[in-house]
Structure formats: structure tokens, C-alpha cells
Amino acid sequence: MNINKAQLLFSLLILMVFASSCGSRHSNDLFQSVYDKFADTAKSIYVVNASSDSYSEYRIKPFDLLSIKNIQNPLGLTNSGTPNDIKSAPLFRTDKEGVIQLPVVGAIEVKGLTVSEANKKITKIYAERLLKDPIIEVTVINYKVTILGDVLKQGNYELERENVDLIEMIGESGGLLPSANAGKVKIIRGESRDKSEIIFVNLKDINSLSSDKLILHNNDIVYIPSKGIYNTNESIKNYTNLFQPAILLLNAAILVYTLSR
């Protein structure tokens, strides 16, 4: 084997690996869409399929789990029992019609109501039928968001209150990894995943922090992609592992040829 040809072959192999890795630098990214290319030019916030109610309060839906307690009376919703009952407020799940069954007063439809509207409706009903000056507190228990990508701790996170924003949840997840692309954070929002609202957030721009779009909604998916250089390095690593036996044989052949001259 001619030594110059062997060196040329080895160089071409390395170039092929690098070119292939560059071409697939984003192949490992999740939730890719045709709109991703527009995020490259987004200074702070770029929104696709913007929802008209994106800024409104959360509205109760079928199968939501609600905590309902009377904070005015430690004896609870029924004005009976022991004071210790207040420590663990009863939970009620809305049915497919958005109706809950409450003690004594029975069925109450809360679908489509905000938490404050549900508070007022349930308070009025209990005041008319059973309790004196009740102060009802309704809390949605099943608020959650999913955080994936280059954060320390991926997973599902419960929202213990409304108006939790993206920055708080990134903090809850342990923060961004060094490999994270803070300029292309993606929030996927909406009941229908095929027509989801997609919010691209450039966290490198401080102006993005003023956007209401960063207030997270129930069942939001937050995805933090990797920087291109990390995906490229991972691809090179994969290709290197694949071609390592061939490279070793080629090096051995070159060594044998050189020693035999």
C-alpha cells in the first residue's frame, strides 16, 4: 500500500465523519417543527399558532382534581366533624361534564370556570343552603408541566400555585446544563397537540423575561435543546466508535508498511 494513498484515505474518512456529523447536528433534538428555523432570528419571543386566551387564567376542565375547603370554619364544608379535618382538605374530581359532587349540596358544574369564579359559585351555594358566611378556597391539584432537554433534572413537575413562570421551573429542575441552548427554549402549549401553540424563548435576551408567555399553563411541555456544537461532538463520538476498528486496522497497515521499507 502506498503510504501517501493510505494517508489520503485516512484524511477522507475523517472529513466524511465531520461532514456527516455537521449535517445531523440537530437530529437528536425533540419536538422539531418547520418553524424552528424562524427561532434563529427571534430576538426574545417568537410564537406560532398563538392562542387567543394565552394570557387568561386557567379554566377548570373535566377530570381536574380540586381541593375544596372552608377556611372560615375548621369543621369543614358540612359544619360537622372534628377540627383536625381542616389539615387535609377533601379532594373532588370533576367528571367528564365538568361537574363535582359536594357534601350536602350535591352536583355543581365548574367546567370552564376560573378558580376565583369557582370559589364564588361554591361559596354562594353553601351560604344559601348550609353554612353561615363561608369562605371557600378552591385549589387545582393536578397542575403540572413537563421539562425535558438540557436541564439537571428532567421530569414532570407539579405547580403548587398559578402564575408560575418558566424561570422558576428551570430553577426547580436544577438549572440549565452547560450544553443547553438558552437561545432556543421551546414551550409547547395546548390541549390539541397537533395544533399546539409553540413559544420560542431566547433567554439570552433579558427582554424575554417581560413576556406573559413565560407564565406556564397546565400540561405545558418545556424543551431545552442542546447547542449545535454538543450535538456535533456527540455525532463525531458515535461515528468514531463505529469506525474505530477500521481506523485501527488502517493505522496498523501503515505502521507495518513503514517498518518494512
Structural features, described:
The protein is an alpha+beta fold. It is built from five helices and eleven strands. 31% of the residues lie in helices and 19% in strands. A six-stranded mixed sheet has the order 1-10-9-11-7-8. Strands 3-2-6 form a three-stranded antiparallel sheet. A two-stranded antiparallel sheet has the order 4-5. The longest helix is centred in the last third of the chain and has 33 residues, at 228-260. Residues 20-25 and 81-87 have low confidence and may be disordered.
Summarize the topology:
Layout: H1 3-23, H2 36-39, E1 45-48, E2 65-70, E3 91-93, E4 99-102, E5 106-109, H3 115-129, E6 136-140, E7 144-149, E8 155-158, H4 166-172, E9 185-189, E10 197-201, E11 221-224, H5 228-260
Parallel strand pairs: 7-11
Antiparallel strand pairs: 1-10, 2-3, 2-6, 4-5, 7-8, 9-10, 9-11
Structure summary:
With 261 residues, the chain is α+β, with helices and mostly antiparallel strands.
Attribute tags:
three-stranded antiparallel sheet, Outer membrane lipoprotein wza fold like, 261 residues, alpha+beta, 19% strand, 11 strands, six-stranded mixed sheet, wza like fold
Give the CATH class of the largest domain.
Alpha Beta
What oligomerization state is this entry in? single chain
Q: Which structural class is indicated by helix and strand composition?
A: alpha+beta
**In CATH, what is the homologous superfamily of the largest domain?**
Outer membrane lipoprotein wza domain like
Count of runs of 4 or more consecutive helical residues: 5
Radius of gyration: 28 Å
Give the strand line-up of the largest sheet.
1-10-9-11-7-8
Low-confidence stretches: 20-25, 81-87
Number of strands: 11
Rounded average pLDDT: 78
CATH topology of the largest domain: Outer membrane lipoprotein wza fold like
What coarse outline follows from CA principal-axis ratios? elongated
Query: What's the domain count?
Result: 2
In helices, the fraction of residues equals 25-40%
CATH architecture of the largest domain: Roll
Helices and strands, in N-to-C order?
Answer: HHEEEEEHEEEHEEEH
The CA-CA distance between the termini, in Å, is: 11 Å
